From TrEMBL, chain B:
Needed co-factor(s): tungstopterin; [4Fe-4S] cluster
Top-level lineage group: Bacteria
Pfam families: AFOR_C, AFOR_N
PANTHER family in the record: ALDEHYDE FERREDOXIN OXIDOREDUCTASE, TUNGSTEN-CONTAINING GLYCERALDEHYDE-3-PHOSPHATE:FERREDOXIN OXIDOREDUCTASE
SUPFAM superfamilies named among the record's database cross-references: Aldehyde ferredoxin oxidoreductase, C-terminal domains, Aldehyde ferredoxin oxidoreductase, N-terminal domain
Homology family: Belongs to the AOR/FOR family.
Protein name listed in UniProt: Aldehyde ferredoxin oxidoreductase
Aldehyde ferredoxin oxidoreductase N-terminal domain location: 50-268
Alphabetic keyword roster: 4Fe-4S, Iron, Iron-sulfur, Metal-binding, Oxidoreductase
Length: 65, 742
């Protein structure tokens, strides 16, 4: 189990940042993502593994509006 | 009034982008013009962003005078919306209503407006007493009018009085002539009128881009929701296009004054017309931004390809798209009107900015639409947009998922002079009333206002333009429709009030705020009424969970409305701030504020005016105007806590099906937020629990926000706050506040 923006999400072996975006249907392109307070650059979303129990922040910037 | 006749048999032969067919009657229209008043004046260019004078025109008495811009005006009100509110305050009394002659329309672009080196600097702010809200409304609009007005010598234009005949105000900023002309046979609707006037007042082909026209259309005469079109000449398409000052019915005030159009002819635009204090900094900041757009837009919001419509599918995925009058947040047919469709439908071979130098270039045009209904049936037209608000408001919120009908609704809103946001929300309300039996065919005069019935929707709009039937009632807006339905005994008053999405008399813009308390505040705790350009916090609050406490939400509802107010003081578009970000933005502190862009704005203001400011000063500048506007509202009889109340549909689920569409989430909230067990409770009982909790926390939010803003719990700025902001220098402002402090 991990926490994504304070809400629980099931964890699986080999889970990447991209998997989280898919699971949450986060399609907005301008994101700031921290895994356990470490910034993950956009180019590393597919390769960055998320450990079990991680606290993940997916910050959507203000857009549209 | 005459309408140019178009022969539908010619439809495939015409060059639809040049619209030459509209110009056939031009000479006759021109010959019918009669000069009612003409003066000469000395045109001048701005010095450090200001021309240091404003223009006053009384369309009733034909008085035309110049007024100086004082140092106090610049220090306290800056320009744009600030100048608009200042002039309006001096023009009206607490008893003035929108259709009194003393009501004004003030147009002001702001000191930085008009520079061509940075993106999004062509905006004007239009301020008037609104027919919908009875308080000042401000609308931020692109197009060329504001900058060309400034380059003709004026930081603002005040229009007062009422004419007894249709007039055109022409400002020739090259020759130094201001003329009021009677215009007895000019076309009515904007897409024809602006084309005709642009050609009428341009001296030759090359002069066309130096003309800008402000106009409205037939619906502004018969509704309270009239909008103003500000034109810009599209050199590539060789036609006139528009940006809109949509909200609050300023187009209705315009027609009530019997202004047919405003026309300005400015000098040829060049990069240095603003005579800034430090042109190098402006150029450097602009180059940096243009590079950023070029490099990042393709992987970020793709504004240059999609415009703001890029968020249609995102809002749908996040359950935030308004569907069926804000009942639901997504719909399976959204793919028919999402950005992948608009990408193909909008012409992509051209750079589409609404002012010179806007590299964000989001002003998308859908060319070649053949209209299926109304007075222009058979015409082939270019439709500007649809932007997100149009796609959501005219589309999903009314269940219209046919993109051609959506474009046609958008076209007629534009040419008839109707605010698309307002029209979308009021039509969604009508459709829900029809769904729930509050309205029926008999009450709508035969219009079958079922979800997605675009033909009935268009017919209602045509009726609005003709001033007939149910369209005339709809054109009063949601607030007055609610009163009308309740007075007639149509439906349950509580239900009608719950589902009518207006606050202060203005219709909500197109975001589903039920699950974001901060966004509920961003809508209802505004000065002018619920509009997304004040505080759009739905991602920060609901998706990111960045604002967990009431204090966090109050802080955001302090900062963002003030930050965004600043754009309107200076002539900026908000989109270049937040719809592209620097590559390293994620690693900056507070990346959601886009700190590098905030610094750009600080630099641009300082470099234009020569006045050094910091990012904290930027907020202070806005706070002066924002609090002044709040006091103005109070002076006009609104602006207190009771006027900030939100319709329950914006806070929570009004109906059983709304609750059940999110039952899991709502049941869970009963456990986590209320500490109760939903098991065994009926949906009605659970809805009642939610209502109590949701209205209670909205009230608590009001307390927190008012406190943070330096207001009493009744929403009145305190004397201490006025003093901090230097507003105690205006005894009338202090007097208004004193009456409300016990
Ligand atoms: S971003 Fe779009 S609306 Fe804003 S100034 Fe540029 S083209 Fe106009």
């Amino acid at each position: 189990m991990i926490l994504v923006n304070e809400e629980p999400l099931g964890w699986h072996e080999g889970m990447t940042v991209r998997d989280i975006l898919r699971a949450r249907n986060y399609r907005f392109p301008m994101l700031v993502i921290h895994v356990n307070e470490v910034l993950v650059p956009k180019k590393d979303y597919d390769t960055t593994l998320v450990p079990d129990g991680a606290a993940v922040k997916v910050i959507h910037l203000i857009s549209g509006g | 009034m005459s309408q140019l006749v178009f022969d539908p048999s010619k439809v495939m032969d015409i060059d639809y982008t040049q619209r030459t067919e509209y110009l056939e009657g031009l000479e006759a229209i021109k010959a019918a013009h009669k000069v009612l008043k003409e003066i000469t004046y000395a045109p001048s260019l701005p010095d450090k962003g200001y021309t240091n004078r404003t223009l006053y025109v009384n369309v009733g008495t034909h008085e035309i005078t110049e007024k100086p811009v004082t140092q106090q005006m610049k220090d306290v009100f800056i320009g744009g919306r600030g100048f608009g509110l200042y002039h309006l305050w001096n023009a009206v009394k607490p008893t003035t209503r929108w259709n009194d002659p003393e009501n004004e329309i003030v147009i002001s672009p702001g000191p930085v407006a008009g520079i061509t080196q940075y993106a999004g600097t062509g905006k004007s702010l239009v301020v008037s007493l609104s027919p919908q809200t009875d308080i000042p409304i401000d609308s931020n609009v692109g197009g060329f009018y504001g900058p060309l007005l400034k380059f003709s010598g004026f930081d603002a234009l005040e229009l007062q009085g009422k004419s007894d005949k249709d007039i055109i105000l022409f400002i020739d900023g090259v020759k130094g002539i201001i003329r009021i002309e009677e215009a007895p046979t000019d076309p009515v609707d904007s897409h024809v009128l602006a084309e005709v006037l642009t050609h009428m007042y341009a001296e030759n082909e090359k002069d066309l881009p130096n003309i800008s026209v402000v106009s409205t259309g037939a619906a502004a005469e018969h509704s309270l929701i009239g909008m103003l079109n500000f034109s810009f000449y599209d050199r590539r398409r060789k036609c006139v296009r528009f940006k809109q000052a949509g909200r609050g019915g300023i187009g209705t005030v315009f027609r009530d004054k019997r202004i047919r159009a405003l026309v300005v002819r400015g000098p040829k635009v060049a990069g240095d017309l603003n005579h800034p204090a430090d042109p190098e900094t402006i150029a450097k900041t602009g180059i940096k931004y243009h590079k950023e757009i070029r490099e990042n837009d393709g992987t970020q919001c793709m504004m240059r390809r999609n415009g703001t419509a890029h968020i249609v599918e995102i809002m749908d995925a996040y359950d935030l798209l308004p569907v069926h009058n804000f009942q639901f947040g997504s719909h399976p047919d959204v793919h028919k009107i999402d950005s992948s469709y608009w990408q193909q439908r909008c012409t992509q071979h051209t750079v589409d900015g609404c002012w010179y130098g806007c590299s964000m270039a989001c002003a998308k045009g859908a060319d070649g639409l053949v209209l299926r209904t109304g007075p222009y049936k058979g015409h082939m037209v270019t439709v500007d947009g649809p932007e997100y608000e149009n796609a959501a408001g005219l589309g999903s919120n009314c269940g219209v998922f046919d993109p051609d009908y959506l474009l046609e609704l958008n076209f007629y809103c534009d040419t008839y002079g109707i605010c698309t946001i307002t029209y979308g929300t009021l039509t969604a309300f009508v459709m829900e009333c029809y769904q729930r039996g509050i309205l029926n065919k008999e009450r709508t005069g035969g219009l079958e206002m079922t979800w997605g019935n675009a033909e009935a929707d268009l017919e209602m709009m045509h009726q609005m333009a003709r001033g007939e039937g149910f369209g005339k009632i709809a054109g009063l807006g949601v607030k007055k429709m609610k009163e009308h339905f309740i007075k007639n005994g149509w439906g349950d008053p509580q239900l009608i009030n719950d589902i009518g999405m207006e606050n202060k008399g203005l219709e909500y813009s197109q975001y589903m705020s039920k699950e974001s308390l901060a966004q509920q505040g961003g809508y209802a705790l505004t000065n002018k009424g619920p509009q997304h350009d004040e505080a759009w916090l739905i991602f920060m609050d609901m998706v990111n969970k960045q604002l967990p406490t009431f204090e966090d939400k109050a802080e955001a509802l302090y900062y963002f409305p003030l930050f965004r107010t600043w754009f309107g003081l200076n002539g900026f578009c908000k989109l270049p701030w937040n719809d592209v970000v620097p590559a390293d933005n994620a690693s900056q502190p507070e990346p959601h504020k886009v700190p590098e862009h905030v610094q750009n704005y600080v630099d641009l203001f300082s470099a234009t005016t020569g006045i050094k400011i910091t990012k904290e000063d930027l907020i202070l500048q806005s706070a002066k105007v924002y609090n002044f506007q709040r006091v103005f509202n109070i002076r006009m009889g609104k602006g207190l806590r009771l006027h900030d109340a939100a319709p329950y549909r914006s806070l929570g689920p009004v109906t059983k099906e709304e609750y059940e569409s999110r039952a899991e989430r709502y049941d869970q909230q009963i456990v986590t937020e209320m500490g109760l067990d939903p098991a065994g409770k009926t949906t009605e009982e659970k809805m009642a629990l939610h209502r109590e909790w949701r209205t209670g926390r909205f009230s608590k939010l009001m307390d927190s926000v008012y406190t943070r803003r330096g207001w009493t719990l009744d929403g009145v700025p305190t004397l201490e706050r006025l003093k901090e902001l230097g507003l105690d220098a205006f005894p009338e402002v202090v007097d208004v506040v004193k009456q409300h402090l016990s």
